[in-house]
Every structure is written in structure tokens, then in C-alpha cells.
Amino acid sequence: MKWTTFILAALLSSASLVSGAEAAGFPDKTITIVVPFPAGSTSDTIPRLVGPLMSKSLGVPVIIENRGGANGSIGAARVASSAADGYTLLLATTGVLAINQWIYEKPAYNAGKDFVPIANAASTPNIIVVDPAVKASSLKELVSLAKAQPGKLTFASAGNGSTSHLCGETLKALEDIDIVHIPYQGPAPAIQDVLGGRVSMICDNLSNVVQQVQSGTLKPIVVTAREPSKQLPDVPTSLQAGSPDLLAGIWYGFVAPAATPKDVVEKLNKAIVEALRDPSVSARLEGLGLTVIADKPDEFGAFIAKESARMESIVKRANAKIPN
Question: Taking the model in full, what pTM does it have?
Fold first, then answer.
């Protein structure tokens, strides 16, 4: 059985392994949402917006626990080993569910076996932004500058194996340029060093840098997507910039430990989807450059399997492996 087929089968079946009767009375205590990245990023913002509304609809406290490190692997492993009772959830990203298994020689968890999908919350494209001191205002100019000064320009990332890392590696491969990767423990410190002029650029999630672009503290180069950004419509897409294969983005979803009862998963899905569709929450997320998805568990499971296959090919092209 192919790995991606196995991922889909495991994700869709694991929620039904415990009978609905065992879900009776859920919830009756605090629910913890583990964010596998430091505070200050979109991964942290989404559950902090959704959590209070979940708490109101479910009638129990919902708290956020930041457990960053290793491109989300530390937090993911913490949830994977938790009780499958619906009280410990994971805010999972593209990296956590579709990249880490391809990039790490010995992953800390099994993305296909250890989790059951609840809902895909939202997505956003990446955008290449540079320190305003960098003498380039377009992708063509940035590539020319990198070729004129090989090894001088640097690009930050949220960590080895993150979408910002793979976006930078894809740019290097497509344009045949020599730029130096500098990994960080999450997007917030990486962006701070670009803002401070210590790193030349980053290809990060648009939602993480849209406010800095709008304020002029970061200079936009290209949105790594096929469609223009609603928040930054004047920034060219990869296609418009002449590099149609330079595509990168991220999605954020909620998952629970495998074997969480199906009734519990459905109840959590309902609470999360209602929170995401609340006008105040959706407006806030869209203002950050996110597109709200709010789908069903089976739809999210199928999407994860498709994304896993896509990211496998990108990791291979970038030759981005991380030894344990």
C-alpha cells in the first residue's frame, strides 16, 4: 500500500475505533490545544481566537500550550502520546502533517498513524519579503543581486523543514542562485532578524508579515501563489514575476490523537467550525491574509493525503533532509 494511501486510510478510520458510547458526557474538563511553535505566529493566533468561542459552546475551559521546536515535531509528539479522549488537541500545519515525515531521517511521530483529523482551519500563501536595505524591488532584481554576490544574501526560515525553508530552497534551485539558509525556532524570531537587518530575506506565510509589509517595514518581492493576494493585490504572483513554479504556502488544521472517539471528533469539529465562521474571527483571520476553510474531518483527511504526496516531491527536489 502506498504511503499516502496509508495516511488517508489511517486518518479516516482511527476516529471510529472507540464506540460512541465512550464519548458520552464529553467534555467535562479543560481542553488543551497544543501549538507546536512559539507564541507570536499565525499558528498561535488561530487557536487563541477560536479557543474562547469553543469554551463558550462546549462549556469548559480551552487553554493554549506552546510547545515549540524541531519544525513542530516536539509539540506533535506530545499530542501523539496523549490520551485519545479529545482533551488534548494539536494545531497542526503543513510541516507537521505533510513535510516532517519526508525531511527527517527518524521522525518523532507518525503523521499517518498517530492523529485523526478534526478540521482544516485556514490557509495562506507565502511571500518573499526583504530587508528594505536590500537593493532589489522585484524577483528579477533579487535574482540578479544574488548572482552578482554569491553566498552574500541570506534567507531566514521558521526552522529546517518549514515551508519557509523549502520555499527558499526552491528559489535557489529554480533560479540557480547561492543564498545562505539561516534556520530559527519559529517564524517570529526569524522575522525579527529580517526586520533588524541581520538577515536579508524570508519566504514566510503572508499572514505572518502582512502588517509589516503594509507598514513599510518589510519590502515585498513576490507572493508565491498562482492567484493575487486580496490583502496585497499589488504584489506580483510567482507567475506574474516569471517564475510559475515558485509556489509555497501553509495550512493550519486541528487534529487529535488517533483512536479519539468519532462522536468526540464530530463534537469538536462542530465547535471549531462555528468558531471559525464567527464574523469577528473570520474577519480577523482574513485581515491577516488567511482564507478560512472550516471543513469536515473526512475532507481534511483527504486533503492531508494529497498534500503529503505533493510535499514529498518538493522535499526531494530541494534535497532537504535533516539527520536526527
Answer: 0.81
